[in-house]
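Example 9 (inverse folding). The structure is encoded as follows.
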C-alpha cells in the first residue's frame, strides 16, 4: 500500500510552490534602515541585496521599493525587496580583520557575492501539501534573530537560524546554532528561515518581530497551525549566505587556544547572534501570483532577468571607510572597542 501511494505521488505534478533564486550584492555599507533609520553610519556593517532604492531611512510611510527602484540585483525582475545580514570577518592572530567574501550557490555561477533567497509555500520536496500562503503587503518588513544573543539558550528562541559547514557545495547537514568549530573546505553557509505567522494587521512593530511569530505547534514544514494572535500564514522567507573561507582555512592561522576565528561585523564570535532583515518590495501582486501558481523553483509566473542585469545593479556606499576587503583592518568598522564586545565560544 505504501509503495502504491508513493508511486502515485511520483506520477503527479508537484503541487507545492517554492521559488529559489540568486541575488547579487547591491552594496556593503554601514547602514541599518530598520533598526537605525537615518543613521549614516549605523553601528555595524551590513551586506545588502535587492532593489536599488535602498537608502539609510526606509520607514514604510516614506517609501515603497517597488515604486522607487529602477533595478534589482535579484533574479526575479519584479522583486525590489531588500534583504540584508551582517557580514563575516576573519580575525587574524595579530588581531586584525579581513572581510570574508560571499559566493553564490552552485547553479548560480556568475552572480557577484550576494545570497540565495527562497519563498516557500510548503516544505521543500513535500509534494502532497496544498496549503495556501498570503503574500506580504507593501510596507511589510521584519527582522529575525538578535545581535545580542550570546548564549545557546538565547539563540534557541529563534529555531531556524543555523550554519552548515560545507564539505562540498551540496552539503546540507548537519546544521548548528554556533559557528562551525573546524575549517569548512567549501565554505560556511548561514541559513536564516523567517517566522511564517503574521498578525494580519501590522506592517512592522517596535522590535520588528512582534507582528510575526512561529506556528503554535510543530513547524511551518510540518504545517503547524498559526496561533490566534498571528493567524495569517505567510510564505517562509529563507536566506542562504555562503562565505568563501578557503583563504582562511589554514589552522596555523587560527587562534592558538583552539577557538574558531570568524566574527560577525558587530563582534559576535559565537554565531548565536545570527540575524537577518527583510523589507518587502515585490511589484503589485507578483509574489501572490507566483505563490498561487503552485510551481516549483522554475515558475512560469516568475519574470526573470539575466545574471548580467543582476550584476549591473548596485548603489554606491554612503559611509566612506575601509571595510577590510583587500587590506587587514585594526578594528571592525564602527566597533572601536570590539575586543570588549567580542564573545568567544569555546565549549
Ligand atoms: C596581521 O596578520 C595578517 C594575517 O596573517 C598579515 O597578513 C598581516 O600582515 C599582519 N599585520 C601586521 C600589522 O602584522
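The amino acid assigned to each position is listed next.
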Amino acid at each position: 500500500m505504501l509503495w502504491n501511494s508513493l508511486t502515485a505521488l511520483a506520477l503527479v505534478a508537484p503541487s507545492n510552490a517554492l521559488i529559489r533564486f540568486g541575488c547579487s550584492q547591491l552594496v556593503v555599507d554601514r547602514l541599518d534602515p530598520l533598526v537605525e533609520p537615518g543613521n549614516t553610519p549605523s553601528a555595524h556593517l551590513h551586506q545588502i541585496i535587492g532593489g536599488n532604492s535602498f537608502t539609510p531611512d526606509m520607514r514604510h510611510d516614506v517609501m515603497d521599493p517597488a515604486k522607487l527602484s529602477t533595478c534589482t540585483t535579484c533574479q526575479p525582475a519584479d522583486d525590489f525587496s531588500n534583504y540584508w545580514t551582517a557580514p563575516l570577518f576573519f580575525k587574524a592572530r595579530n588581531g586584525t580583520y579581513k572581510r570574508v567574501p560571499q559566493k553564490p550557490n552552485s547553479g548560480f555561477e556568475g552572480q557577484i557575492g550576494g545570497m540565495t533567497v527562497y519563498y516557500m509555500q510548503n516544505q521543500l520536496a513535500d509534494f502532497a501539501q496544498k496549503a495556501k500562503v498570503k503574500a506580504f503587503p507593501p510596507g511589510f518588513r521584519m527582522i529575525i534573530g538578535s545581535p545580542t544573543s550570546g548564549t545557546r539558550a538565547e539563540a534557541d528562541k529563534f529555531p531556524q537560524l543555523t550554519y552548515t559547514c560545507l564539505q562540498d557545495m551540496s552539503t546540507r547537514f548537519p546544521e548548528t546554532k554556533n559557528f562551525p568549530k573546524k575549517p569548512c573546505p567549501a565554505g560556511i553557509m548561514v541559513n536564516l528561515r523567517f517566522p511564517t505567522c503574521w498578525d494580519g494587521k501590522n506592517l512592522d512593530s517596535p522590535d520588528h518581530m512582534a507582528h510575526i511569530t512561529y506556528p503554535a505547534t510543530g513547524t511551518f514544514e510540518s504545517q503547524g497551525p498559526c496561533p490566534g494572535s498571528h493567524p495569517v500564514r505567510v510564505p517562509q522567507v529563507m536566506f542562504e549566505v555562503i562565505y568563501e573561507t578557503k583563504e582562511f582555512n589554514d589552522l596555523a592561522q587560527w587562534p592558538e587556544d583552539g577557538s574558531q576565528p570568524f566574527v560577525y561585523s558587530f563582534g559576535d564570535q559565537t554565531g548565536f547572534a545570527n540575524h537577518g532583515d527583510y523589507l518587502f518590495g515585490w511589484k503589485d501582486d507578483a509574489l501572490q501570483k507566483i505563490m498561487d501558481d503552485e510551481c516549483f523553483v522554475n515558475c512560469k509566473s516568475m519574470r526573470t532577468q539575466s545574471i548580467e542585469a543582476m550584476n549591473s545593479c548596485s548603489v554606491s556606499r554612503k559611509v566612506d571607510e575601509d571595510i577590510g576587503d583587500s587590506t587587514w583592518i585594526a578594528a571592525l568598522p564602527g566597533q572601536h572597542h570590539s575586543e570588549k564586545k567580542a564573545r568567544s565560544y569555546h565549549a
